[in-house]
Write a structure and sequence with these properties.
By secondary structure, this protein is α/β, with parallel strands linked by helices. Helices cover about 20% and strands about 25% of the residues. The strands form three sheets. Strands 1, 4, 5, 6, 8, 9, 10, 11 and 12 form a nine-stranded mixed beta sheet that branches. Strands 2-3 form a two-stranded antiparallel sheet.
């Protein structure tokens, strides 16, 4: 399968979380390595990234970091080159994790995906160059997030709006989004740590304030695999209707 459009050639998968809501499953296995539909969650991402033309993938790790390389290797199974960004403990949150991973990425835009989601979204649709600092994929609000996260208006993502959607955990980012992270984060807890620990959302909202974030709505399948029950439901759905 070839990519449907020339998109980014590098990606980051967020895989460093503690997976506390998934315990006891995550006591011995990081959440992205839990199986659904016969393969680990992160395996679905790697397949789709390879199909979209991505060649280099950074996987940020922290909790049970030593489990990833024996399972995923160097990425050759998917035709990818995997690079591991070990954050140590505790994890650096999404913003700190992205900042820490930039040393393993070049200056071009990159795809970033949460390691604990599943979606049938075609990653080949993502733009190689986001119109602004980032391009986010939004989905319909699930029952566990009824108020949504952001609004989508005319292809621009806003912090607030009449019709809010949920951020899918899939997006394209320019490294420049993090250039002035400290000015936005200020003295928030973790900002003075080495390496710094902070969330990505404040940076996105700051960019949204001046129209710097584009986006699209994906009406298809999407699951935030946040609990053992949702993992079981996804596994059953994939078994009965394979991708």
């Amino acid at each position: 399968m070839s990519p449907s459009s020339p998109g980014p050639r590098q990606a980051l998968i967020f895989a460093a979380g503690l997976g506390e809501r998934m315990r006891p499953l995550t006591d011995t296995t990081p959440k992205p390595l839990l199986f659904a539909g016969g393969k680990p969650l992160i395996g679905w991402h790697l397949e789709r990234l390879a199909a979209a033309g991505v060649r280099d993938v950074v996987v940020n790790v922290s909790w049970l970091a030593e489990a990833f390389a024996p399972t995923l290797g160097d990425g050759g199974h998917w035709g990818l080159r995997l690079h591991y960004s070990n954050e140590g403990a505790p994890p650096l949150e999404t913003g700190g994790g992205m900042l820490h991973a930039l040393r393993l990425l070049d200056d071009a835009p990159f795809i970033a995906i949460n390691g604990d989601i599943w979606s049938d979204f075609d990653l080949g649709r993502l733009p190689a160059e986001p119109d602004g600092d980032a391009h986010l994929v939004l989905v319909d609000n699930p029952g566990h997030n009824p108020a949504g996260d952001f609004a989508l208006e005319g292809g621009r993502v806003r912090s607030e709006g009449p019709s809010r959607l949920t951020f899918s955990g899939i997006g394209v980012y320019r490294p420049a989004l993090l250039r002035h992270w400290r000015a936005t984060i200020g003295d928030a807890p973790g900002a003075d740590a080495t390496p710094p620990r902070f969330r990505l959302a404040p940076l996105l909202r700051a960019s949204m304030a001046h129209g710097g974030v584009g986006g699209e709505h994906h009406p298809g399948r999407w699951t935030d695999v946040g609990t053992p029950e949702r993992l079981a439901q996804l596994d059953e759905a994939l078994a009965t209707a394979p991708d």
